[in-house]
Amino acid sequence: MSDGGVADLVVVGLGPAGRALTHRAHAAGLAVVAVDPAPDRAWTPTYAMWADELPAWLDRRVVAADVAGPRVVAVREHVVEREYVVLDNAIFRAALDTGSARVVTGRALHLDGSAVTLGDGTVLRARHLVDARGLRAGGGAAEQTAYGIVLPAAAAAPALGHAPALFMDWRRDNGTTTDDPPSFLYAVPVGNGRTLLEETCLVGRPALPVSVLRERLLTRLSHRGVDVPTDAEVEKVRFPVEAPRPGGGALAFGSRGALTHPGTGYSVAASLGAVDDLVGALVAGDDPGKALWPRPARTVRALREVGLRALLALPAPLVPEFFDDFFALPPQLQRAYLSRRTEPRATASAMWTLFRHASMPVRRTLVGAALPRHH
Prior knowledge:
Elements: E1 7-12, H1 16-27, E2 32-36, E3 48-50, E4 63-68, E5 71-73, E6 77-79, E7 83-87, H2 89-95, E8 102-105, E9 108-111, E10 115-118, E11 123-131, E12 143-152, H3 153-160, E13 166-169, E14 184-191, E15 194-204, H4 210-223, E16 233-240, E17 251-252, H5 268-284, H6 288-292, H7 295-313, H8 319-326, H9 331-339, H10 344-357, H11 360-370
Parallel strand pairs: 1-2, 1-11, 2-8, 5-13, 11-17
Antiparallel strand pairs: 3-7, 4-7, 5-6, 9-10, 10-11, 12-15, 12-16, 13-14, 14-15
Helix pairs in contact: 1-5, 7-10, 7-11, 9-10
């Protein structure tokens, strides 16, 4: 579907979002060029999502481990009535094959709406250009940080107690007091009889340093009777949960395109869920920006930004209480806020229901977050 040597689409960046876009655009018959400094690099972060977020076109074999009913421990313990899956990175990456799309090894220096200039001076042109390079940490954006280790499941079991997985565990056996900036334990199976134990700062501006999270994790695991070998596999996490608002310059996709949930840090599921809307617009000749960000999606984004401001403003002692209220919501409202990108009414319903059941101190924080900001 190209002529004169001009592709239909250039995708810059071959992480999960860019590779998914390349894969689906090629499958739709578009002539695609993909650019990345290291297109064959392995993916090392842990990617996970709710099972109902897996798109129908993605083979279930990408799942390395699944959990029915992960737990949240806040003020009380909650069972999340939803299946949670952790992906096998190698199988996931292979499933997003680029087919006969042209893959160029290079670093993008300049992008505009229809061309990208690489470090060696090469210029690639296309009818459409999408920037999927992700976002760098730093720059003052709110960030999520984490420090984790991977252990054999039997060795990690004391940290989980009776739970099959801990989506969030806010207990303060990590050496902190109620006035310290909080962090939680994220503990999930990752396949092949292994478990990831990760101390996580959900969001901060600035977020807690990874070195602090390492000390908290080791303290927590020591209190729970988990021995950590010196050669344990380590995962370090730091990324922004905020991105520039859509619009202006090259069309962005994935975390660079504001698809990161600002209250959870998850972006891969949203990217997989939105990719066919974008590809469909490209095939039909419609405005891809409007297809990716229809008005309902922009409204949901604005509502979630209110949620982010509330999380950043919550006094440390109130954070477990906030999540206790959230995970006491009916499952359909939890799902709406966490996953439904184009359903503003359901998102607002979740936020209003939480507000009605929250304590007065939490309510005051939520009201402050919702007030218009003055610059």
